Amino acid sequence: MNNENSTLATPALSTTKTNILRRLYYWTLSLAQKKHAVSLLFIVSFIESIFFPIPPDIIQIALCYANPKKSFWYAFVSLVGSVSGALVGYAIGYIVKEPIINFLTVYVTSQGTVDQVIHYFQINAFFWLFAAAFTPIPYKVFTLSAGIMQINLLVFIVASILGRGGRFFLVGGLIYLFGDKVKPVIEKKLEFITVTLTLLLVLGVLLLK
């Protein structure tokens, strides 16, 4: 990891709403420079699926630029950590329903958002789980809500693997193939890329119907 640490790149800071969130962002980014950065990548990926507000992409991108040949390994670590955390989030929502709803509406999002997520699940649980896992939509709200709604566990796992895997391996693949040439695109346009791909997926589903 020492060679990786010496060449880590710093992604551009995303706009944040509070100073606390801004400091949390910098702290998360600094984890990529630690000795056990890969383990920390797993931990951040894990807790982000439950409550942590900063996405693991920050650490993943920094590590991928430090050692592009391991880009797919870092993507895999992010995937395993994220889906493992999602399962814990699902279990928490399944077992502790009312306190989790209160937690979500007070500390994470609004009651209206939670109600909307429940409505999405009633329409098409697989699609919305995939969309939340792949795009900047707050995935943690969906993992906890999926447990509350007792969504089919197999559907939950498959959608999470496909969505999170698509997101993390997209980042790792771009850096592996194009390196520094794609750096500005990933740092500034990652959310745009994922949202666009999801919209294309929606269009494809509609055309099939």
In DSSP terms (H or I, runs of 4 or more residues), the helix count works out at 10
Distance between the termini: 49 Å
Shape: globular
Largest sheet: none
* Total discrete domains: 1
Helix content: over 70%
The SSE string, one letter per element, is HHHHHHHHHH
* Unreliable sequence segments: 1-17
Question: Which structural class do the helices and strands define?
Answer: mainly alpha
Radius of gyration: 17 Å
What's the pLDDT, averaged over the residues?
77
Describe the structure.
The chain has one domain. It is globular and about 45 Å long. α3 packs parallel to α5 (71-95), α5 (71-95) packs across α8 (139-149) and α6 (97-108) packs across α7. It starts with a helix and ends with a helix. The protein contains 10 helices and no strands. Helices cover 78% and strands 0% of the residues. With 209 residues, the protein is mostly helical.
